[in-house]
Design brief:
Layout lengths: L16 H18 L5 H8 L3 H10 L9 H14 L2
Helix pairs in contact: 1-2, 2-3
């Protein structure tokens, strides 16, 4: 799908045309991932970067990649301990 949007000329001070497109794709992917509408794999694909670079972008933007509660982490560790007995 192609979409055409008008960007104010003032953005040219900060980005060239290719950088604007990359930035919009990345920010859209981050937003959709944060809202749990797409997986991290789909988000990295949408952003057109590898999954590790997308995870770094998540960290920079304070978006959790692993979203476990403390109780869930403790439960997982207990399951691992039981399997290793």
């Amino acid at each position: 799908m192609n979409l055409t949007i008008t960007i104010p000329d003032s953005y040219k001070l900060y980005f060239n045309n290719k950088d604007i497109e990359k930035e919009i794709k990345k920010n859209n992917a981050l937003m959709l991932y944060k809202q749990e509408k797409i997986s991290i794999e789909k988000a990295s694909e949408l952003a057109e970067i590898n999954i590790y670079d997308f995870m770094l972008e998540c960290k920079i933007n304070q978006i959790p990649v692993i979203d476990y509660t403390e109780e869930e982490i403790i439960e997982e560790f207990e399951k691992i301990r039981e399997r290793n007995k």
